[in-house]
Predict the 3D structure of the following.
Amino acid sequence: MKTFRTGLALAAVSLIAGAALAQPPAAPSSSLTPPPNAPPPRETAPGPLAVTVEANPGLMTHTIYRPANLAAVRANDRLPIVAWGNGACSNAGLLFSNFLRQIASHGYMVIASGPLNAPLPAYASGRTTNPKPDGSVPAGQTKDEDLIKAIDWAIAENGRAGSPYAGKLDPSKVAVMGQSCGGLQATWAAADPRVKTAVIWNSGVFVTAAPSPGGRSMSGATKDSLKKFHAPVAYFLGGPSDSAYPNGSDDFAKLTTVPAFFGSINSGHGGTYQHPGGGWFGYTAVKWLDWRLKGDAQAAKVFAGPDCELCRNPIWEVKRKNM
């Protein structure tokens, strides 16, 4: 009976995927509304650890997501460090709270750019946020360097006597991640030699350079930044309706030396961050980090091998290099 039910479930997924492919692709958009042919949400269960979200007096420009019980962190399972950049380079530390809590619940120290008490931006209600007409960057925007600032602070706290994080973090396991504009920040920050993996969500460097009218940019990432990747990188995009899909696809095509994974699901630019447990993106984020930072061989099977889990799932588009 279990095999029969599993077969029905896979058949249903195949039918959904087939129906989606039969429809003409939506034009690329930065809308956070999923396309009409998006696959159904995946409910991803939280990890085993309770999570605390906090502001630290030494880093009030950022928001920290970490396991609540630091006393339970032992020397052999210290927390990897994940620096996160928000979409639109927003300074709202709670903007991706659902998604980042999911990661932290699996034993990670996630540091998001933006204060804990910052108001959510307008686009969190479904509206897009763009640079001002005069080309200046909107107030309250984060910078590329904020990801490096998070890494510097975490490593310093790990070694500082009296810090609640002393001996609890693992400076040898560092990731940079971000969504949309935050993905550009992660692209820029991935050049840091301490970074062991970069994960780019709904993002990619613009194929054609188009400086804003005032000549200012929200990120310093360029196509040349891709040449500075020195560790495994993953791109997770929202299908052809995602405004970042052409840019992320082009970035992936230009990578030649580092292990690289490309995964796209038809969720649009808004991804699945607000689905239970972050949905598919919450699931793949944890599995990628577990593989690349913790050496989890089971997690690797989601992405690697001739019969990888996402490779077999018809709702995912998958490409791989040097893996």
Q: What stands out?
A: Residues 48-121+139-210+230-321 form a domain with the Rossmann fold fold (CATH 3.40.50.1820). Residues 2-22 form the longest helix (21 residues). The helical segments are 2-22, 97-104, 145-159, 181-189, 245-254, 279-294, 297-300, 309-312.
